[in-house]
């Protein structure tokens, strides 16, 4: 068994970095706070006897050697970055649960056949640099290194500069660091486990997602002296598209979801009719055909707009992913052995595991979170549930690292 | 006759200050550029023999003395501030047309009975500090001095600090500077004159307006793992209200207008369902009863919202205003004498004249602008039309200043 108290205290210590006033964390990727979090993670891993390396995109690997250097390492991890108004658990839990597995192996004096590695993937959230899961995506060959390095944030800063600035651009090519398996523990971020009074989700895959950038171009004009009939109001057109995003998601329900999370109005003045509105669309569905139908539907909405010019640009398509059956079984067997109420499920959120799975045998373990709430400062998970998920990770890692 | 070339060149010189890349001006009130514009205006007025003073809110008065010091001055003016993406004429024309009248009086060696004053009112646009026409409003007793001094911009800077910073907080109490009449020349900012091939609008009054601040509160949550049914998406609710603003305006057409010009999403992240959206509403109508009905309608929409909490706060109600008949006639008589095709009309935009009219006999003269476009960098007025409006101002000022 792992040490649930130690895991909890590490989570609370990490949550100090980038702490916000309503209990959450705002630790966007490659900021000063991310650097502090990475430094603390490195220190903890080295104290646990690991060797820490990072690749050209700052993906970090903390290695606890195994008995047999010919075996590929079993990796456990997630990400330390958060949303602008994020919680204490999303991502961090998976990284620190991995570290807790290493610490517990040390406590019990267990030597594994394959090495165990704890991983922190760069820019999982995608809140600063779109798309999400960018650097686990490069690791798996889904994106080019160059594409990742040139992503820019709202202020025009690019990923490469920021990575250099915080000192986490390594020399190892991204993707060269071979892994034998990857296991990611995470809070569910949805309501299913809680609703069914279960404490473990054995995650068999993730749903597909499509992300869009939308630019709506109208014409700046005076809000008082311009008659309604002559207007080209980009925000009215945007409001129609936002409403359509909801309708399209509901039309592909109950599994389809659609969200406009980010929106900018220009010139953003009370008495100027907006001439330009830029926003994001995020569509998801476990069925890729449904996701294609949603894509067609939103294009039809954009094409039908008459009062403004709509530019709809799909910047990312991540098809549904199925995890490796051996890894999923290792999670399920460990869960059964530990006697936790559980279910098999598909992830609603995207995860680094969904990208890594394209290259490395992968699976995930979920624990419930209060009210299914995440990407919210009030995000909360019970210490017992976090410990349970970490015990499953521990047992599954032992199974996979033994030959 | 005034000197149209000189007027045009002064307009073009002023347009250098805060010039934007698409031909317009971004010279928000009380910024460094506003200070530079005020300094240049002061220099030009002093060169024309005027004495320049300003009150506690930075409203500027450039005085050309008259023969009879017992008569109240005839004031001509408007504002030098612009929208964030404003044009070269909105406001500036009225100030520099006033200056051109003074210069022409000098050219012709005309001594008037009453003094002539050129006025620059602070924060007409309301783009930085809401509401619009704030300092002409205090001048007329519609707002308290304290209210004006404590208005804050998006960055939390308050009007008083910014006024002090640029050195334009005077000692004279706002409103103490008595005027005998106020005439404001302005581009129409709408399509009416152009459509009818007329070059002068004799403005008999302005329509009413109501401004609102709206806060929509939902709940931040994950865009991928939160089912559509459990969401409290503040942006979806905001989109419904934005659509309703348009519908309400159309329901009170063709004269009613409604606009959402400014909107902020929080936390504004692609994969977080927005928990908070803040935006403005601007409703206008020449009939105050219709404006009240629009107010009731938007409250009903806000009250009906079920998926989010809506806080609707009316921050400003400016009823329709009727200008002084003697001043309107002075404008109309001058227009007829000069032989310009013209019409009587009501202003769609708000103007300092609409505030000053509550205290001082007031009227306005409009000239056409291309495509009725204003609050847009492409705003354009023909030099001949600007000269025509200035000639009307000149003749009307002569009439009113002669006793
Ligand atoms: N797990 C998680 O919050 N990932 C962020 C990427 C996404 O699913 O939008
Ligand atoms: N004339 C003008 O653009 N005024 C700005 C105030 C308003 O009408 O919104």
Automatic annotation (TrEMBL), chains A, B:
Residue stretches making up the Peptidase M20 dimerisation domain: 208-305
Stored Pfam families: M20_dimer, Peptidase_M20
GO molecular function list: hydrolase activity
Keywords: Hydrolase, Plasmid
InterPro entries, alphabetized: Amidase_Cbmase, Bact_exopeptidase_dim_dom, Peptidase_M20, Peptidase_M20_dimer
Keyword Hydrolase annotated: yes
NCBIfam families registered for this protein in UniProt: hydantase (TIGR01879), PRK09290.1-3 (NF006769), PRK09290.1-5 (NF006771), PRK12891.1 (NF009527)
Similarity field: Belongs to the peptidase M20 family.
Protein name: Zn-dependent hydrolase
Naturally occurring in which organism (per UniProt): Aliisedimentitalea scapharcae
